[in-house]
Amino acid sequence: MAKCCLLLLLFLLGFLLPEARATSCHPDDLQALRGFAANLSRGGVLLRTAWSGATCCGWDGVGCDGATGRVTALRLPGRGLVGPIPGASLASLVKMEVLDLSHNQLVGTVPSWISRLDHLCYLDLSNNTLVGEAHAHNK
Predict the structure, then answer these.
(1) Residue 34 falls within a domain, yes or no?
(2) Would residue 101 count as lying in a domain?
(3) How many domains does the chain have?
(4) Is the pTM of this model over 0.70?
(5) Can you tell me the distance from the alpha carbon of 108 to that of 111, in angstroms, rounded to the nearest whole number?
(6) Tens digit of pLDDT for each residue in 37-52?
(7) How many other CB atoms are found less than 10 A from the CB of residue 95?
(8) Which strands make up the sheet holding 62-64, listed edge to edge?
(9) 103 within a domain of the structure (yes/no)
């Protein structure tokens, strides 16, 4: 019985204290995500508020490799993000496999650096007002 209670307690702590189990964020990725949020209007304010601390792997919409702390996914559909996709801030997320910025109010051209994300296998920029194409990068 005591063993079951201990397991239940550990299970509940995993849900109640997500920061305790969040992987540390790679410093370069932390800087890239903060730069991305800093250059967006409206929805970016909410991101800057929600994305606090140095454990970006525990932030809403951010997925990381548990061993390295490198960001592998950024899923921010329908977050009210407004403006152009900021500079090359996300270009330094070198291990990113998933980028979903769909259903926002992003404008301008599709950044050329997206084609240089060698690990990217899922990209969704739909339902924004972007022009241009993200061309595949041959390795």
Answers:
(1) yes
(2) yes
(3) 1
(4) yes
(5) 9
(6) 888 877 788 888 889 8
(7) 18
(8) 62-64, 71-75, 98-100, 122-124
(9) yes
